[in-house]
Each structure stands twice: as structure tokens, then as C-alpha cells.
Write a structure and sequence with these properties.
Length: about 575
Amino acid sequence: MKILKILILSFLVLMISAGNVFAGGGRQTGGAGGGGSPDKDTLPRKETLYYFNQWGPITGYNPYGNSNNSFIAAEVEVVFETLFLYNMLDGKLYPQIGDSYTWNGQNMTVVLNRNVKFSDGQPLTAADVVNSYELQKTYTTGSSGYWSYLDSVTAQDTYTVVLKGKASNFNPKYMEASISALPITSKAYWDKQKLGSEASALLQFAAWDCIGTGPYKPYFNDDTMLIIQRVDTYWGQHSSRYGKLPAPRYMAQNLYKDNAAAAAAFQAGMIDVDQQFMPQVWKMWESGAPIETYIPQAPYYFPGVIPMIIFNTTKPGLDDPAVRRAIAMSLDYDLIGANAMSGYTARMVPSLMLPVPAEQALIDPEALKSYQWSGVDLAGANRILDNAGWVRGADGIRAKGGVRLSFQAECPYGWSDWNASLEVVAQSARQLGMDISTYFPEANIWQQDKDNCTFDILMDSPGGTGAASPWTRAYAAMGSMDLPPAGTPNRIQNYGRWVNQEANQIINQLASETDAVKVKQLWTRLNVIYLQEMPTAGLMYRPGVFHTVNTSVWTGFPRINDGTNIPPTICTNGYGVKALYNLRAK
């Protein structure tokens, strides 16, 4: 396999474009502040949906841009649309700017909706789709990995695109992931830019005036907030798609310094839909606030990712699977779930899989039981370390061959649920004769440590959520087939640099295997290897999105079993954008 750069929905630099410099360092477009249009301080409240999904000012509106840009989360579908929408509830793809897709062998044919237009009024054609893919081939971006599975993307006619899969590396799920995750942009726009030939040129390009086909466009941004404005000529009003415009005229985010500040603003009604961890959310509505979660009772949120501790297997001590497995066996899942996660998780069962029917159907649970543990198994963990020759010293810390089991566990400062989880990891390890200290740097330092493998133990959520899950999780947590040379930044997979060739073979085979019996056998075997080696250790089942709403201004947000089949993605990502059409201002 050639180098694969996994597209995780959380890794896209998303949203809007802007133009003129505004007083105070802001940018605005679309007449903001003039001609009767409101400025950032006078947005009409009953026409503005305030949402929260980021921690810092953006550094560009390029949807293919630098993943270190703080605006990297999940707003692609409201400005830069994809061909199809992925629905995390049922795992299906639904038409967006694409009308249909069909398979013929290893070729996928996509038919576009003929009514789609960019925000400047120009029609979308197959040439725009082809160019959007070609940009990821010409330059190195977070989406370049699609070309590990593609031979070509060509225009069959004005409204038909053919994606030809690689015969030697066929991965239909990942090809389907591409049509539900790659933002489609204007070829005419990129033809006017002078990017140069350097591989990173597109990644670093801010693209402040880049345009999309979505229902919103840039309005304003500065160091304190950002605003997008509804495109009232949006093509989606056509009967072939939505038949109307989304309800909010504006969507806006104020930027907050930490979870506590954002939670206070949310409870006060200054945020309508919020994607952040808030402990004991039920106390908000018990106090009388008009606040709701997608699920009205525990666990309140829909599981989407598995936050894990990733072991740097190049570090002495952590290169021993006995040490890694012992740490995993010592974890107090109940304490993490109750204290760090406020009960927002089902109880962890050690494996690579989420506790959702689609993923559980891929494994044989009975075949895994002898490799799993239940609850805190300190006796078993200490026995493993004893048998591996790790002996407690006078200070109580185990050592062998001059190597002490003393490590640092890190995740970003301010991520309160993750910070609390790592404190539990450190506390559990002390009972094994290990010294694990916690380290909470700024997010950019954590990202650098992750990319450069300059960490001991690092918390992350490998694989994300999308049409290729759980394959992407296995690839990101266990795959080593595309690791760059030691000392070279790794922004792709397996940040702990664990290597197992059998795991690589299984992951490669799962990419294209269609026989249900073989698929189950392969997933079961991969989970056995995972449980024996523990290159990572899951801590909880975290929601894909902490979708929490305050209904003091807007109502009509999706809830479980409400008949809409709309997932909880704060109205901005995948099939969740359909929620914008159901909202009503009080």
C-alpha cells in the first residue's frame, strides 16, 4: 500500500471564506455591517443559531488545509458540500450534490444533481468533482490517502463521474468514505490560484475567498467569533433536494477559553447547540434550564469513537506487551465512566469495537472472552508483570535491565474529560508499581508530540467515524504498513509505531473482503491480536459528538426515536445538516 492519510471527520479544516479586512482584525463579506446588514454584535437572535465546536480563531477557510488550523471540526456540509451524506445512525449514504452511485466491478459511477450551483451562481459539473480529487493527488493533504485506493477519477460527461478503484488495493468502503467526506470545490477558483509545485502548498494555503455549494457562506470572523450567512439562492431549495432553505439566517460561534466558560454560556442560552463535554449535564435541566440531550437518559449521547491511550512502543518498557497489557487490565472503567465521563458511556468491554449492533455483528464475542478481562484486574496485571521479570525496587517502582516503569501520559489542556481520564490511568498504574505522571500541554504541542512520536503515553481517538468504520479505527490503531521512516513526522496512523505483520495482512484483507463468514473470522482474529499485544487501550465509548441543545430560542432539534433518522451532529455534519430544516424559532 502507498502512503495513506486517513480522513477523519475531525481532521478536516472546514468552513467559510472571507474577504475584506474588518476593524479589529476581523474579516467580513456579504455586506456585513453595511446596507442594513447586522454587524457581529447585532445579529437578530431569532434568526441566528449559535453553536459551539472550536477553541480558537481560524487561520483560513481552505477545506483541504492544515489540520492544525483550529477550525478543523465538522462544519463542512454547511459551506463545502460532499457528494453524499453519511448517517451514523444507520451507516448509510444519502444524496447531497450527488444523486446516485453504482458499482460495476471495481468502478464507482456517481451521477450529479444537475441543479447544484456554487455560491457565486456558477453550476457544479463533473470537472469540479474531478479537480477536487486531483488536488489531493497533486498535493499532500489530509485526504491524499484516497489515492492509495484510486487509479483515476474521470468525467464521463458533464454530470457523471467515474472513480476507478485500484485492482491491487481495492477498498470499496474507503471509496464510499471519500464520496461522503471529501468537500467539493470550484475548479475555476483553484485555476486562478498560484499554489506552486511544493507538496505542502495546498495544505498551507489559507483560501480566504474559497467558495462552496452549501447553504451558508462567510460573513465575519475575528479572534472572538465567526459567523456564516445563509445563501438565499441556495440550490437545495429545488424539489429534488430539500424544497426550502434551512431555518437559521445566520450561524455563529463565540470562542471560549475552556469548557467551563463555554458551559456557562450554554446554560445561559448564549449557545443553542453545543459540542463539548459538560459533566453531569442532567443537573442543567433539573435546575430548570430548557436543555436536552439526544437520548433523554443515560448514557445521553450516541457512541461514536473509542478514546484510547496509545503506547509509544519505541520506548523501553512500553515496548513490552506485558507492560502494556498490565496497564490496560488495571484500568478502572467504572471510575472513568462515572467521574471522567459523567456516565456518558456504556461499560467498556476490551476490544477494537464500538457497542453498536453493526460492529458487534462483525466479531465472535465468545471467541474473545478468554482474552478479555472484566473490571479492575490488579491481581492479573501484577502477575503478568512478575512473570515478565519486572521487579519492584525500594521505591516501589518496577524495573528490569536498568529500565524503570516511569512514564508520562499526555492530552491537551482544557479537555476536562480526557484530563480526568488520564488521572485515573495514573492512579491505576501506581497500584502496579508504575510511576505514570500526567502532562496537559496546549493542543498544538500535543499534536506535535503525536506526529513526531515524542511521547510516552498519549490519549487520542484513532479512526474517527465514517462510512469506512470500523476499518479506519483498526488501520489507525494497529496498521503499520504506511508508517514513514523513524524520525519522520507521522500524520497517518499508529502513532505509537507498533508493528505486527499479521495485523497488517488482516487489515489489508478486510479492505475488500465481502464474504460475511470470512469477514467475521478476520475481525475476530484481529481483535485477538489486539488483546494480546495492546498497542493501545480503550478507556471509554465517547460520543461522536456531544450534541446538547438549549431550546430557549430554537426548537425542533433531533432526538432519538423521533422518526426523523437525523443523527446528533450539532446540525453541521453529514446527514445531521437536515436538522437545520426542522428548526423553529420561538
